[in-house]
Amino acid sequence: MRDSNAEVTEVAMNGVSNDGSLRQVRRISAVMVWACRALMVVMPLALVGYWGWAGPQSLAAQGNVPPSLLMAPLANWQRVVSALVMAVPLVLLLWGVMQAQRCFVLFARGEVFTSRTTASLRRFSGWVATAALAAILASAVISVVLTVTNPPICGSLPSGSGPTMCSRCFSRPRCG
Predict the structure, then answer these.
(1) Helices 21-53 & 76-108, crossing angle to 10 degrees?
(2) Could you tell me the pTM of the whole model?
(3) What is the pLDDT of residues 32-65, one digit of tens each?
(4) Is 171 within 8 Å of 69 (Cβ atoms)?
(5) With b meaning 16 or more CB within 10 Å and e meaning fewer, what string describes 114-141?
(6) DSSP SS3 for 161
(7) What do you get for the CA distance between the two ends of the chain, in Å?
(8) Are the CB atoms for 142 and 58 separated by under 8 Å?
(9) Per-residue confidence (pLDDT) for residue 68, from 0 to 100
(10) Range from 16-25, 111-120, 122-131, 165-174 carrying the lowest mean pLDDT
């Protein structure tokens, strides 16, 4: 019995399939094309739904803010701005999903190990990495948006680093 990876490689090199493994790759790839298309519709809707209806504790977690630091109820503008901020990494991720979809389209056509599929995979990984970095930055921006309506704090800022120092910064006693 031959290794299926070796056969897929042979199919890519010679265009010949002995037991239908290329047919299976094409069938699975066609399903993945539709999965990518579904993600491109569902994920933006999920983002809007999440920021529109999730509770303050869940939203605080998105900004790495302890829920106790949300001193006032969240205003609608805070939800909208936070959703827009999180839309940036989502758009980058969806651009990567579109690259994956292109790759799966090529697989479904029988182009398995070609320069076009390799380029699509490379672009996919680049966009996903960019989206991950953007999500880190977006989390910091969201922490500011969610706590901007808090009253001012008294005293000097503590020195040091890490999450506990940041929490101490925000949880100083209020002036007045």
Answers:
(1) 170
(2) 0.74
(3) 999 999 999 999 999 999 999 999 889 999 888 8
(4) yes
(5) eeebeebeebbeebbeebeebbeebbeb
(6) coil
(7) 80
(8) no
(9) 85
(10) 165-174
Report H helices in 15-150.
Answer: 21-53, 56-62, 76-108, 115-147
How far apart are alpha carbons 85 and 138 in whole angstroms?
6
- pLDDT confidence band for 176 (50 / 70 / 90): very low
Residues 6+ away with beta carbon under 8 Å from 154: 172, 173, 174, 175
Place of tokens 């630091």: 69
Look up residue 30 and give its two tokens.
């066609």
> Are the CB atoms for 98 and 121 separated by under 8 Å?
no
CB 149 within 8 A of CB 78: yes
69, 121, 67: which is closest to 97 by C-alpha?
121
What was the pLDDT predicted at 155? 43
Q: Which residue bears the tokens 């005293």?
A: 155
User: What distance in Å separates the CA atoms of residue 38 and residue 51, rounded to the nearest whole number?
Assistant: 20
Name the CA radius of gyration of the chain, rounded.
Answer: 24
Separation of alpha carbons 58 and 2, rounded Å: 51
Amino acid letter for position 117: T
Quote the CA–CA distance of 137 and 157 in Å, as a whole number. 22
